[in-house]
Amino acid sequence: xxxxxxxxxxxxxxxxxxxxxxxxxxxxxxxxxxxxxxxxxxxxxxxxxxxxxxxxxxxxxxxxxxxxxxxxxxxxxxxxxxxxxxxxxxxxxxxxxxxxxxxxxxxxxxxxxxxxxxxxxxxxxxxxxxxxxxxxxxxxxxxxxxxxxxxxxxxxxxxxxxxxxxxxxxxxxxxxxxxxxxxxxxxxxxxxxxxxxxxxxxxxxxxxxxxxxxxxxxxxxxxxxxxxxxxxxxxxxxxxxxxxxxxxxxx
Length: 251
Hints:
Layout: E1 9-12, H1 17-30, E2 35-39, H2 48-60, E3 65-66, H3 77-84, H4 94-111, E4 115-117, H5 125-134, H6 142-146, H7 150-159, H8 166-169, H9 186-195, H10 197-210, E5 215-217, E6 220-222
Parallel strand pairs: 1-2, 1-4, 2-3
Antiparallel strand pairs: 5-6
Helix pairs in contact: 1-7, 3-4, 9-10
């Protein structure tokens, strides 16, 4: 694939280390005039994500744009779940649909980018290839092309003297929302219970009201308030439920 002069590249920045490094490489290779870096804010993310975004802006020397769904200007996943009376299923989560996909589509209609960059790392080469083949042919896999893994991206951010988002330091596998409803692992939800008990209680209450069984224990879906503190699943480092702007296409 070849980017022509004058074509615009949208880099979708998720407040994670990989998308930050992908933004840096895209700016380096294609120039500030051709690159737009865009973020979809969600208020259920840790507040330190905004600090990380500001630090990355200073590092890159570029303003990161904000793209929001005009129906949900509060950018709240809780509001989406209340409105939709649905939290998560096999096809994804409505919060991702409304706050990521629709927000992106509205931004694209206004700005007409020619190319997209996401934070797929070299660890995710097959996932990136499948994405290009099945979702977006105009995605540039900059991290895969550079051979950069997630661990490499963490180190690049550290070398830039930028503190990683607090969610990583608290033991979470990504910088997604606290209490991400895409997660079904008892390991994850018990981690939320320990690290963010108020969020855990909120998810318990709302999932009961909506009737959403968010956690899977021994291959059975149960309500969060039925989860025992001794229930475990995969180790946190092996969990994979990144909240991307395209992963909800089946909804």
